[in-house]
Amino acid sequence: MSKKRIVILGAGYGGLRTLKKLQKIRPDAELMLIDKNDYHCETTALHEVAAGTSNADEICYSLDLVVDRSQTSFIQDVVVCVEPEKRRVLLKNHAPVSYDYLLISLGFEPELFGIQGMEHYGLFISDIPSVTKIRAHIEEQFEKWTEDHRLEHLVIVVGGAGFTSFEFLGELTNRMPALIERYHIDKNLVRIICIEPTPNALPMFHRRLAEYGAGRLSSRGVAFVIGRVASVDEGRIDYRTDDQIQSIQAGTFVWTGGVSGSSVVAASGFNQRRGRVTVNRDLSVQGHSEILIIGDCSAVINPQSGRPYPTTAQIALQQADCAAYNLNAMLHGNPTKPFVYNYKGTVCSLGKNDAVGEVMGRKLKGRPASIMKKVIENRALAKIGGVETMIKKGRFSLIK
Ligand code: FAD
Questions:
Q1: Are residue 211 and residue 226 in the same domain, yes or no?
Q2: Where is the FAD/NAD(P)-binding domain (predicted)?
Q3: Cα–Cα 20 to 30 A to 165, which of 30, 128, 229, 267?
Q4: CA angle 20, 22, 23 (to 5 degrees)
């Protein structure tokens, strides 16, 4: 009898950690990993590449460091959709792949909310190509300023004042002095503007911490504007405040106002909302117990609030441990276990030596928060890439 096949879609936090755990369990099954890239990206550091304070290779590592070829085959391709009834996955450039058990962990995509012009003129912090584009775009705009001295080239607008926005703004304000020097710009001409519909920036944090974060960014020149982005055009952002439409002329517009799960989830016909499937307690899909969904494509309901937990790398990593256990249990016809989330806290970087967050119930800000952020990032690196990868790629400097 041929071995059963477990297929994992996505080599991000959820998918790669599940594979690592499964390879340790060594189930009597064929393991297969599919991802569009042959590297793992530390998505939580994408904002650094966008701002230009890190290079892409500093936040990525080869899948070869994790994939054990004696147990696992890897296909580099784009997943188009899953056909649950036929138990197969359709790929862009390869023949369909059949599975006995499937794990979907395809991450997130920017949520555009149907805002006019966003798809064309917005820039997004979602993967390596998108953040490389942001870095190049900002530099191109500053270069253009040296040619025509039009001020909009020096205006950068960020839509959204949540976690990703603040992390990006923190790095961007750190990068600015080098850019200003390189292009010989008067620093007073550069404008960095953050637009958010409500006065509640960083809504996941206690107000005192959120105010600290906003205060730190303001002190580095970020202007906060209350308004809802209505449309985006080349060099122009329209936003609504009190029933009035206002405009900002800006060469760069970065949208951080929302994310949804992968569009593959909707294309596969699952019962989903914004690319996320509300999964069963054991992370399986209703009506398809052979399919597990984790990470940003899944919604896990917090029993206390009745609402889904925010999608984070933290929850994806914990789900992965449960998913590996359950996939192995299913393979042997054993009972699966429910996923229980253990929230440990969140730290939002504000750039070099600065951060704000709550860890194990303790509120942190400034350098202690920044050190804690590095500890968290290194831990995630070790959990997936292993200790060697953490030593090579980890963040040990106390001044970056
Ligand atoms: P991902 O880790 O995003 O992996 C998805 C994988 O699927 C990728 O390897 C991708 O290449 C692959 N893929 C996607 N589509 C396809 C396709 N069609 N075909 C083939 N392959 C595909 N969370 C925290 O807990 N703490 C933080 O501090 C934090 N900071 C963040 C900072 C930023 C700037 C951003 C953007 C996010 C941050 N997050 C943070 C959220 C966190 O990154 C995500 O929740 C996490 O990446 C989700 O893990 P995942 O496994 O679902 O997907």
A1: yes
A2: 5-320
A3: 267
A4: 65
Q: How high is the pLDDT of residue 393?
A: 84
Among 13, 169, 377, the mutation site with the greatest number of ligand 1 atoms within 8 A of its Cβ is 13
**CA-angle at 383, arms to 69 and 400, nearest 5°:** 120
Q: How far is the CA of 361 from the centre of ligand 1 (A)?
A: 25
Residues 16 and 146 in one domain: no
Q: How far is CA 397 from CA 23, 53, 177, 368, in A?
A: 32, 14, 21, 13
**Is the pLDDT reported for residue 190 higher than 80?**
yes
Residue 1 tokens, joined:
């009898």
User: Which atom of ligand 1 is the closest one to the Cα of 261?
Assistant: 52
> Are residue 273 and residue 350 in the same domain, yes or no?
no
> What distance in Å separates the CA atoms of residue 223 and residue 282, rounded to the nearest whole number?
45
pLDDT in tens, 103-113: 999 999 999 99
Of the listed ranges 142-146, 171-175, 333-337, 383-387, the least confidently predicted one is 383-387
For residue 44, what is the domain's CATH number? 3.50.50.100
Catalytic residue positions, numbered: 167
Q: Give the number of the atom of ligand 1 that is nearest the alpha carbon of residue 40.
A: 9
Report how far residue 87's alpha carbon sits from residue 96's, in angstroms, rounded to the nearest whole number.
10
Distance 150 CA to ligand 1 centre (A): 37
Q: What is the pLDDT of residue 391?
A: 86
Does 312 contact ligand 1 (Cβ within 6 A)?
yes
ipTM reported for the complex, 2 dp: 0.99
Confidence of residue 399 (pLDDT cuts 50, 70, 90): very low
pLDDT at 1: 67
- One DSSP character per residue, 351-370 reads STT-EEEEETTEEEESHHHH
Q: Using alpha carbons only, give the angle 62, 106, 379 rounded to the nearest 5 degrees.
A: 55
Nearest CA to ligand 1 atom 4: 12
pLDDT in tens, 139-176: 999 999 999 999 999 999 999 999 999 999 999 999 99
Distance from C-alpha of 255 to C-alpha of 161, rounded to nearest angstrom: 10
**Distance of alpha carbon 389 from alpha carbon 237, whole angstroms:** 42
Q: 13: Cβ below 6 Å to ligand 1? A: yes
- Which residues constitute the domain of residue 362? 344-400
pLDDT digits (tens, 9 = 90+) for 260-270: 999 999 999 99
